[in-house]
Specification:
Blueprint lengths: L6 H25 L2 H26 L15 H30 L8 H29 L4 H7 L4 H29 L3 H30 L5 H11 L5 E13 L2 E10 L5 H18 L3 E10 L2 H4 L20
Parallel strand pairs: 2-3
Antiparallel strand pairs: 1-2
Length: 326
């Protein structure tokens, strides 16, 4: 997996979550805190999620085969989607169930210093993991806001780790608040309320992850900036006079398919057209290195057909389409 896949952030999160999960289960065993149990399961689920991301990155590196001629780049999207399912079911639903049970049958916390100590340790460890994810993300997001980065990123790993770590830190604060209120009031129902809030938080984060990775699985186009670079690289002003229509598709985070119908002069020879296409492909790869699969189809531009607009069924069709901003 490339550096843009956030391998360092995943490994940092995996190490932190494994250590935190063990400490939370120990605290639960001594205190009986349901918040600690929910947080322990959450950290265990997060550890499994990071392992899934690493597996997906490894599988995505396989060479293309006759059965899968465009390679396995989308394996990373599939495993990221599995992460959202695990976070929703194992983390979120379990915490909601535990929270309801503790609210219905509260009991006083024992050995309060265990959960408090573990929560403080967990906040420090998660903070370190979150800091690593932020540092790696800053190298890629440029001028985009954090919400734009999460929604537009083509590599799913960093958004997943960012959301997981962010959710984990808020969850720890909720758990600390639940335990603290239970100790101050002597009423264990507050521990259950904290657990319930953790579950709702995890479910919301899982739904956001599922929506974003679903879009990647369906197939997203190149970003607006890359589309403009590709368009500028295709047209040479001589043989290739314009783009009739164009489609782009991410085969994986670092692999882009470009298919375009290009306008050429009616009196150009086959040799001139072939030479121009080869030159255009070289310019595209230089402008956007991840554009690795390129198909350019020459056609004679027709004003009457162009008036039909960007209709994929029209021949030769209309103007190039730009990806919608979101």
């Amino acid at each position: 997996m490339s550096a843009s896949g956030g391998t360092r952030a995943i490994v940092a999160a995996l190490g932190a979550n494994l250590a935190i999960a063990v400490s939370k289960f120990v605290a639960f065993a001594f205190s009986g805190s349901s918040s600690m149990l929910a947080e322990g399961v959450h950290s265990l689920a997060d550890s499994g999620n990071q392992a899934l991301l690493l597996i997906g990155g490894k599988k995505a590196q396989r060479e293309a085969t006759p059965q899968h001629p465009f390679g396995y780049g989308r394996e990373r999207y599939i495993y990221a989607f599995l992460v959202s399912i695990v976070l929703f079911s194992v983390g979120g639903m379990f915490a909601v169930y535990e929270g309801f049970e503790k609210i219905r049958h509260p009991h006083e916390l024992e050995h309060w210093y265990w959960p408090v100590g573990v929560l403080v340790f967990a906040i420090i460890a998660e903070g370190f993991s979150f800091r690593t994810a932020i540092k790696e993300s800053n190298e890629l997001r440029g001028t985009h806001s954090w919400s734009q980065f999460i929604r537009r990123a083509k590599a799913p790993e960093l958004p997943v780790v960012l959301l997981e770590d962010f959710g984990a830190l808020i969850g720890l604060v909720l758990a600390l608040g639940g335990v603290g209120m239970a100790l101050l009031t002597g009423d264990g129902i507050w521990d259950g309320i904290g657990t319930l809030c953790i579950g709702i938080l995890l479910i919301l984060i899982a739904l956001v992850l599922a929506a974003e990775t679903k879009s990647l699985l369906l197939g997203e186009s190149a970003g607006t900036e890359d589309v403009k670079k590709i368009e500028a690289a295709i047209v040479d002003g001589h043989t290739v006079t314009g783009i009739i229509h164009m489609r782009t598709l991410h085969l994986g985070p670092e692999e882009l398919l470009v298919a375009a119908k290009i306008a050429v002069q009616h009196d150009d020879t086959a040799t001139e057209v072939a030479t121009a296409i080869n030159a255009a492909e070289s310019r595209i790869r230089e402008a956007v290195p991840i554009a690795r699969v390129i198909y350019l189809e020459p056609d004679i531009y027709s004003e009457s057909e162009a008036t039909k607009g960007p209709d994929r069924e029209a021949t030769p069709g209309g103007p190039a389409q730009h990806p919608a901003e979101h």
